[in-house]
Amino acid sequence: MFGNIFPNMSATISTTLNLAILKLLRPLVHLLLSNGISYHAFSDLARWAYVDIAFKEFGVPKRKQTTSRVSVITGLSRKEVQKLRDLEIPADADTPKRYNRATRVISGWIRDPLFSDHDNNPLSLPLYGEASFSSLVKKYSGDMPVRAVLDELLNTGAVVLQEDGLVKLMTRAYLPGADKKAKLDILGSDVADMMATMNHNLDPQNISPFFQRKVSYDNIPEKFLDQFKALSSMEAQALLEKLDRWLAARDRDANRGVQGSGRKRIGLGIYYFEEDMEKIPDKTTQGDNQ
Description:
Layout: H1 11-34, H2 39-57, H3 67-74, H4 78-85, H5 94-111, H6 133-140, H7 146-155, E1 159-161, E2 167-169, H8 180-202, E3 215-217, H9 225-248, E4 287-289
Antiparallel strand pairs: 1-2, 3-4
Helix pairs in contact: 2-3, 3-4, 5-6
């Protein structure tokens, strides 16, 4: 069955890619089934993505991409390609905007000396005034209303409104809490970034690979999980805050005087993973630092 999917590839590459696809699909299908997304709905989205990417990224240099060529490289009929090309997938611009603005507010709260102490500990802020929550929001959230940002951070537990009227930051990172819609949007964005990095590193024409590493061991007693979670969270948060300060100093939105041509989005993502090896037979005990 799988041998005919990639006819132009060697048997070894085809088999390896098939296995990699199945590894990618298992958690994705679990997510889809958990949220009531049927195979047919996923298939429609996959076909649209094939056509969209084929048109935008797989054209012949200096020649206009055609429906016929997209039909050939995707395996879809010309009629289906044209139908999918005319179909617009709805986009949700509000959720990522809220997430990005809330993240910027918390980031500024931590690193801006106007809103934090000498040890980069965020100060509790009055709602209004020179060094206040209102001035923080206006400086780092763009055009988002102060009340909307406050409500967002209160709802997620990122801040609390104390009895003395001061707003206190409770976490050094914005997490969307019970907002499943926001969590799903973050999942899509973060996984897309990770896949883009891997695509870059797999392309033999890219002589400068992006950073891609992980550390894992598969024979760790359960009693050490909480210790590793705490250690990895502390170290990762410290690194991310250090990188955030470096990037913020060079970002045009945060510093209007930054000079330079071009516009790039850059960053670094860190994630924790955990798996119960007792449910997976015939695994060789080993450690790796890749």
